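ok so I'm stuck.
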Amino acid sequence: MADEQWYYCLKHHRAEQGKQHWFAERMGPYPDKETAERALDIVRERNRRADDAGD
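replied:
not stuck anymore, here's the structure
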């Protein structure tokens, strides 16, 4: 069965479908391409919320 989930590739800086690279070079999985494309923004927002919660 093919992996149809989306990942953000840290090597190529783009959303890609399936596990095309080693796990350390990808973020995800995400439900769709649009969400995978926003992966870095999602991480930044989660980190900001965690930092704010620690204050």
